[in-house]
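If you are new to this repository, start here. Below is one unmodified record pulled from the training split, so you can see the exact layout before writing a loader.
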Amino acid sequence: GKYPIIYSNESFYNNELGARFNRYLLFIANYQFAPYVEGKGKHNIWQYSERGHLHGIGERVDLSRLAKGTTLQDLML
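And here is the target side for that same chain:
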């Protein structure tokens, strides 16, 4: 009974998926700017880097943040 979280880069989402999926939770990657979602949708998670560093991990990692108004509770099944 839950909708999935859709993960996409911003360009693909806006050009191929667009407003048809705006009711879903959106996890959008854009490494230069905060994502823009066409139509009345909004992103819930922004992946802003693929080159982050976390103490204890020897490789680069993706870095993401929750959008204002989105909580971890919103993402839980």
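Two things worth knowing about this chain: Residues 45 and 66 are 5 Å apart (CA to CA). The chain is about 15% helix and 30% strand.
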